[in-house]
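Sample entry (248 residues):
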Amino acid sequence: MGWFTFLLIVIAVWLFFSYNKLRGLAENVKRWQANIAATVKKRYDIAQRLSDIAASYGDHEKLTHFTVIEGETTVAQAAHAAADASRVIGNVQMMANRFPDLKANATYQQLMVQLDEIENTILTRREAYNEAAQTYNSTRGSLPHLFYAEKLGFAEAPYFSVDDAGAEQTLTFTTDDGKMLRDTMGRMANKAAAGAQQAAEKIKSVAQEHQHKRDVGGAPADVASPITSVEVSATDAAAVEAPENKQG
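Predicted structure, serialized as tokens:
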């Protein structure tokens, strides 16, 4: 039982360091995912402001109505908002070619410069995300992580890509490693506790058996003492009678 408990401890320590390594890589993927989401949100805000400026120049039917994004949104909502932003930006640029005053508007020009910067930032961050995802997925699929990664809730990270129509992919990467690890460690702790209890019961049983043998083994020694005493007394009596017979 001692070796079993020791083995559990070794496995627990090994899982601890392996888990921390994989978790760090997963957190890096999530960080880049969050950075992309934040930049896309800025792009959405600029598209909304461009829509407001262009609204005074006509062709209102071509401008998509925006709903302000507040707090966290679902994946479907984020994808819908990104599609709206791309469509509105394209329509506003077409309107700017038709309305020179719009194209010459200082606010419009400033927003377009910011939009170019944000587009470049999004591209850079997507490349960094894909690199982080590649490192994480490569480590996740290598030995020895391959044997426990999925069981501990480390899902494969998706890669960012653009489809044939130019539509942007909405990335969603989450892990359930916290819950899985707690469940796994709980099971290991229960096994360790059960092993320790069995070891304690075994030690107690051996001690009781040893004590029982000592108690049983002591009885013949106590019984043998009077017998030896009787034999000695009989010998002494014979020795006393012998001189008397000689005198007679």
